[in-house]
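tool_call predict_complex ligand=zinc ion
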Amino acid sequence: MSQCRVCNSNYEPFINFGPQPIANGFIPEEKSNDEYFFEMKVGHCENCNMVQLIDQPDREKMFHGEYPFFSSLSKHMQVHFKNFAETVTTRFLTQNPNPFVVEIGCNDGIMLKNFAEKNIKHLGVEPSENVAKVAEEKGIRVTSRFFDYDLAAETRDKFGPADAILSANVICHIPYIDSIFSGVEKLLSEKGVFVYEDPYLGDIVEKTSYDQIYDEHVFFFSAISVSYLSEKFNLELIDVEAQPTHGGSMRYYIARKGAYQPAENVAKLITKEKELGLDKPETFERFRANVEKSREDLVGLLKKLKNEGKRVVGYGATSKSTTVLNYCNIDRELIEFISDTTPLKQGKVSPGKHIPIKPYESFKEDFPDYALLFAWNHRKEIMEKEGDFSANRKWITYVPEVQIF
Ligand code: SAH
Ligand code: TMP
Ligand code: ZN
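tool_result ok
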């Protein structure tokens, strides 16, 4: 029995992925026999409908001065965050002549850059010092700390209330969710908005994209659970917008209760989620069966290719790939190496299964028979880049099912 982080009800796991390492814990080969593992289980609270990790490693194990994820490496994501900033500006920031914008988890400044360039007052909160430093070098004001209630109160004292608090792919990382939502409530101005997006539970269930589940992702949100959570803090979900990023995300617009008339989209999405069964235990039982089948299919395919003497490499040493490799028990016998454009990952080995990470050049110069697309969420961008070069080579994906394309 575990206790729900949102409503304190008891709940049980519906799936166990076994021992998993730190998803972004890429390590030098010589240090690879001394790794931290935790038992990764997920459960669904039948009271508030929050889907969550049972246990999560300590935050300092995941976010620190050598955090290897740099948001701006993806060109498509740069465009996405420029649009995000513009949407929020035109919809919410025209009333106040001198608005204040806060971003929780600004990473290398991919979104705040768009506010800084327009001299809009802003503050980025980013605990991983190395990525925070990259943001600072772009002229962005950053505090390298973890966002929580105390930091929110301090920020309000120092800079005044925030007209917009923004966040992408961060809120789902934070287990002390009460401190985040009460902090947001403290920091927001009267008509202020909290706009955040994260991988969407509906997409994960529909696409069997179980690789969205890893140490950093403690919550898998839906409009149902976010509504519940908002109400608990006297806030209200006023709009939702589906996003194509990270294989299907949802953007949530939250404000003080009564500050805005909620858009029809909210009720519509909640109805759709009930039709999809995101409030029913059977849905998650079915999800588990689909995950098990996905593992069988992927391992079966990789073993078959190996028997045929084919060379398979991985494309994109994503944090998501850590779940797939460790859950499916795939090592360098089946995947020769993984190509990745992040300098901090190159020359190291993957967490848990110790597959070598090589720079993109190794992939281009030594092209394999098959490339397993771990960065499937960037498929469009990657296909544009690979173009004709890969026309007679083959790709493997496992979302929504195991397939060669
Ligand atoms: N917003 C970026 C980065 C997402 S990666 C994007 O969408 O690409 C997640 C980031 O959240 C990391 O940079 C991590 O350091 C940061 N983070 C984790 N816990 C946090 C907290 N409590 N407050 C603020 N940032 C946090
Ligand atoms: P993400 O799925 O968490 O955004 O991580 C994407 C990873 O894939 C990151 O380590 C960078 C890498 N990558 C490439 O190697 N080539 C590419 O073209 C893209 C878009 C990403
Ligand atoms: Zn609950």
